[in-house]
Amino acid sequence: MLAYRAGKPVAAGQFLAEAGRLAASLGPGGHVLNACADRYRFAVGFAASLLAGKVSLLPSTRTPEVVRQLRRFAPDAVCLTDESDCDVELPLIRFPESADQAPAPRAEGAPRVPSIESAQRAAWVFTSGSTGAPVPHEKTFGSLISCVRVEATRLALPGRPAHAIVATVPPQHMYGLESSVLLPLAAGHALCAERPFYPADICAMLAAVPPPRVLITTPLHLRALMAAELELPPTELIVSATAPLSAQLAAEVEQRCATRLLEIYGTTETGSIAARRPTAGSAWRLWPGVTFETRGAETWAQGGHIAQPTRLLDVLEPTGAGTFLLHGRIADLVNIAGKRSSLAYLNHQLSSIPGVVDAAFFHADAPEADAVVTRVGACVVAPGLDAAGITAELRRRIDPVFLPRPLLLVPSLPRTSTGKLPQEALRALAAGQQKAPPAEA
Amino acid sequence: MSDNVSTLRQPAGSPGIDELTRELAALIVQALNLEVPAADIAPDQPLYGEGLGLDSIDILEIALVVSKQYGVQLRADSDENTRIFASLGHLAEYVNTHRTR
What we know:
The complex is a heterodimer of chains A (441) and B (101).
Chain A: E1 3-5, E2 8-10, H1 12-23, E3 31-34, H2 39-51, E4 55-58, H3 64-73, E5 78-81, E6 92-94, E7 121-128, E8 134-140, H4 141-154, E9 164-167, H5 174-187, E10 190-192, H6 199-207, E11 213-217, H7 219-228, E12 237-240, H8 247-257, E13 260-267, E14 271-276, E15 284-286, E16 291-295, E17 298-303, E18 306-312, E19 314-320, E20 323-329, E21 333-336, E22 339-342, H9 343-351, E23 358-363, E24 376-381, H10 387-397, E25 407-409, H11 423-435
Parallel strand pairs in A: 1-10, 3-4, 3-5, 4-7, 5-6, 9-10, 9-11, 11-12, 12-13, 24-25
Antiparallel strand pairs in A: 1-2, 7-8, 13-14, 14-15, 15-20, 16-17, 17-18, 19-20, 21-22, 23-24
Helix pairs in contact in A: 1-2, 4-5, 7-8
Chain B: H1 2-8, H2 17-32, H3 56-70, H4 80-84, H5 88-98
């Protein structure tokens, strides 16, 4: 089976037939923003785009500001959607409702699988630059596929037996694209269309597909799953990424679910490049062929499926041939539940709001705090504006997970004599303001 | 912190919907570390987006609290889910109907 939708199997022949039909209706443009929420439809859209020689656009968020920048990047872009209330300001192509309900074409032997050139540009993914414009990163079909083939080997999922792969992450994110869409397609496993959210949904979705099963998820969902104290259907393998898992939670998951838990390390620019089993040790093992180069304080990754040397935005310590330890994010990076941005980008967006004189985002928790989710706060100097108005304007520009908590209006920012803005000073300013007793009327 | 929660829960009988609404508001403010005082969250105020400004990470957090406190497992695969989080009042109604503790 190539996929399961609502627990019902979908054969490869049907998938290919649907992709072929959709490819013919994507219009003349060269770019498709694939916004399908249903993972199977996303996969059909991705394959159809490949067949039609179009490039999938995969921004991490679709706020009006991001879409405006995408229109500038690819003026011919259309948006493929399977949701009736899609508000993306691009020409919309509705995923054909009937397509995936049509009976599968009569199987006449094995379906003919079209071949795609390895050099074909399959997708553009984006990271937030520091100047406000997203930075595009090219993904060729070959680099994507060679990466997930290594991943399949490292996760010990060679393809036999075929596993059903359930995922709580969106297909548009690099981790979700690789692990929940391309890995099943390339290694002969079945992807599951749904994206379960609550612990009870995850259990129900796993129970709806036959074993052996894999769960692709995040520390956030795993923590909720453990806290809910539900019985997880037997699951051979659980994969976690987007943020490091605490050793304690990893051990609890393996014990209570009688499973293997592996973590993947990757970035939007490079895709996944390393994995580890946290209960077996804290060191990560790089994909074969991928190497690190230390340039001053920076670590760059290269080789393997990585097209060009890429600076990694984490503090990494190589510990031997192909292994390393992860020591945390570099100061500017913001990663909230797998959504990535930078303080510089967020500051730029905040400062661009008319009426904002000076502004700075900060990590709401100190780096040493071991929080599952660390939010960002912001101090804003904006005489004449109120917090609600600034938040509303920010909502148009940045993903909501980055909306500042707290957003504090202050008379001035705590700059040092050299003009620097230490994160600690911003946190202290915020803590002081929040703890101040409310003024009595 | 858990003391605050337990004092809010009155042991005698099941609390009325108004009481449950206030209790939920306090739990949400505490779990999410929100700046707004619990009393300021109106029962008809949207929790998502423009209202209280919660996102899916928060919703997962609330689901966790609700399952622990009331034994209610939320499910997203029903149309109910959108309605449940439409406002604090809707959430309270749902919890009131489905609570096991």
